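Hi support team,

I submitted a single chain yesterday and got back a structure, but I'm not sure I'm reading the token output correctly. Could someone confirm the output below corresponds to the sequence I sent? I've pasted both exactly as they appear in my results page.

Thanks,
R.
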Amino acid sequence: MYPIVLAVHNIIRWVALILGIIVTVLSFLGWLQNRPWANNERKFGMYYTSALDVQLLLGLILYLFLSPIARTALQNLGSMMGNADLRFFGFEHAFYMILAVVFAHLGSALPKRAPDERAKYRRAAIWFGLSLLMIILGMPWFRPLLPGF
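Hi R., thanks for writing in. Yes, this is the structure output for that exact sequence:
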């Protein structure tokens, strides 16, 4: 079960990263070009947030039940902080990704309450940009790009 969930989690990370780049670029372009708020941006924000929600669910399943790395890290928190790999998967990865999900949800929700079009794009750009930054910082770039490669 562990290899299957890990492989799906690995594949969806690329979907989330691509959607994060798209929604962040669209938001910054809308903000800088002072465009009217479009349904397209809202949809991409929803797709991005949904992909991150799926990633969070899969990550929690791995973290709490399936991952031998997380199990080892959680058994001895002191040794986890002394080992770079254990610290990354036991703390840093989870921390960055939870922040990414929270920021993405803020990027989806806060533009709805903005007083004008430019403010909608500004809020979306800031929060989606922070979310994307957290993903870039917390992604295990040293892992295989796709399962089996």
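A quick pointer for reading it: Residues 41 and 137 are 24 Å apart (CA to CA). Let us know if anything else looks off.

Best,
Support desk
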